[in-house]
Description:
The chain has helices spanning 16-32, 49-63, 74-80, 85-104, 115-128, 154-163, 180-195, 199-222, 242-255, 262-271, 355-361, 366-369, 391-397, 411-422, and strands at residues 7-11, 35-42, 66-71, 108-110, 141-142, 145-146, 227-229, 232-236, 276-282, 285-290, 293-298, 305-308, 312-316, 319-324, 332-335, 339-342, 349-350, 353-354, 374-377, 380-384, 388-389, 403-407. It is α+β, with helices and mostly antiparallel strands.
Amino acid sequence: xxxxxxxxxxxxxxxxxxxxxxxxxxxxxxxxxxxxxxxxxxxxxxxxxxxxxxxxxxxxxxxxxxxxxxxxxxxxxxxxxxxxxxxxxxxxxxxxxxxxxxxxxxxxxxxxxxxxxxxxxxxxxxxxxxxxxxxxxxxxxxxxxxxxxxxxxxxxxxxxxxxxxxxxxxxxxxxxxxxxxxxxxxxxxxxxxxxxxxxxxxxxxxxxxxxxxxxxxxxxxxxxxxxxxxxxxxxxxxxxxxxxxxxxxxxxxxxxxxxxxxxxxxxxxxxxxxxxxxxxxxxxxxxxxxxxxxxxxxxxxxxxxxxxxxxxxxxxxxxxxxxxxxxxxxxxxxxxxxxxxxxxxxxxxxxxxxxxxxxxxxxxxxxxxxxxxxxxxxxxxxxxxxxxxxxxxxxxxxxxxxxxxxxxxxxxxxxxxxxxxxx
Length: 423
């Protein structure tokens, strides 16, 4: 968790766990050449909060530990942001610690969570609803945060504090069962202990299994080919199991700042083998399937028509074109401006065939069809990239003084590359 010479910031509430953690790190300070600092947040939630702050200041002064203290009106913050006290306090606490780490120029933040905290968090997540990876809950090390006591039972910490004669303060609200975590600690876990006296160690086994599964999933996701284009992430689901598909989608959705809920998982599994469908994951965020491809995309404006009149670059819904006097792409057409570029319309036909049927034959995913460019002149469709080109007109035009409309970057090109890689 630590390297020699690092600066460690201890989240110091003044309770038995954090005081013991500070004491342990100070014992190791010379061995590891550590610089040990502390940070205390006064939540201003109870009358004894000032007592705790004074205790922490006095303790750090005696131990000659650099301390950063801040007062935040947590109750007001929660009211203004419509958050529960536990959720709001946690959010502010982590923001405070990140700020304290910057101010004191520390490398890592040490948190005093123990095995009992881990068990309580796991049970909380189970009753709220979570998948197997949600049971990881807390990690011994995650980015810049370490939890040296995470696999140590609270009783062991209490024994240590007694042996070392450590002074600490106690938050009396820890016994108020109106708070969910306290209810789990004082009511649920004692009831479970009647079934299994070693309930914390039983949950630890589940935590370790979930951690191993999470590592496997992270490795699997890291090997996947994801195509990112504008407001989209696209991948092939052809070789994925249902579990892999759900976890990959969950990871992609998180990158859009949203969560994939269980109802979405249910809908996905019901439709996974159907060729084309659409699910709204959050306001303006959609999951779509077209053939073997899955697409997560933000709702976006679609340009319906664009007049091509002079040489230059054109962007039509992420399909980039260049009009000039030479061929620069394997997808092009000879034109005599002006020509119209538009999206498809109901009833579009090319000869005896419906344009929709031609798009399906070309394996254009459904999520691209309504914004694909259709190039027409005088009401006649000349070209739909990758789908149709009027060869007769093209042959006639290239012998005259016509310009070339080249298709450069576009979302279907990267999809073709993805399919080719799979093959």
